[in-house]
Amino acid sequence: MWLNKPTSIAQAHSARQLAKNSARSCDWGHAREYVEGMWRMLQQDKPDGHVLATGEMTNVRQFLERAFAEVDIALEWRPASTKWLRLRVRCLPCGSRSSIPPPDGSRSSAGDPTKARQKLSWQHKNPVRELVAEKVREVSSTGRP
């Protein structure tokens, strides 16, 4: 889910969906790094299973706050609830709705990249704050995620 330019669009379904799920956490990582990890897997003599992950969890609320901070906008959350934004935003989802973890959080766990680090000498390089900053710059310059 990547943010388009923060704008006031009342009917932004994906923004409502993100705000509703603000407490859900994800292991956000950069595709470029995962592709490198997959390439390293393919270089192995013997196939084996590896987890490519950052091992760090960031919830949707933190992700949104970082993204808007990149364009000098502070998000205000209603005091009674962390589920809704006062500021209306337009968000463009990346992937399908099924990529949003279920409400019970059963899929909200950080991956353990230990084996990939040990066997493939692979590890993620960019923390989520750099990933967010890069994506916001990209969307700001191109107008698309």
TrEMBL record:
The keyword Magnesium does not apply. GO terms for biological process: 'de novo' GDP-L-fucose biosynthetic process. Its cofactor is NADP(+). Keywords: Lyase. Gene3D superfamilies: NAD(P)-binding Rossmann-like Domain (3.40.50.720), UDP-galactose 4-epimerase, domain 1 (3.90.25.10). Its EC number is 4.2.1.47. Residues 21-134 form the NAD(P)-binding domain. InterPro entries: GDP_Man_deHydtase, NAD(P)-bd_dom, NAD(P)-bd_dom_sf. Residues 94-126 are annotated as: Disordered. One of its GO terms (molecular function) is GDP-mannose 4,6-dehydratase activity. The keyword Transcription regulation does not apply. Belongs to the NAD(P)-dependent epimerase/dehydratase family. GDP-mannose 4,6-dehydratase subfamily. PANTHER family: GDP-MANNOSE 4,6 DEHYDRATASE, GDP-MANNOSE 4,6-DEHYDRATASE. This is GDP-mannose 4,6-dehydratase. It comes from Rhizobium lentis. The lineage of its organism: Bacteria, Pseudomonadati, Pseudomonadota, Alphaproteobacteria, Hyphomicrobiales.
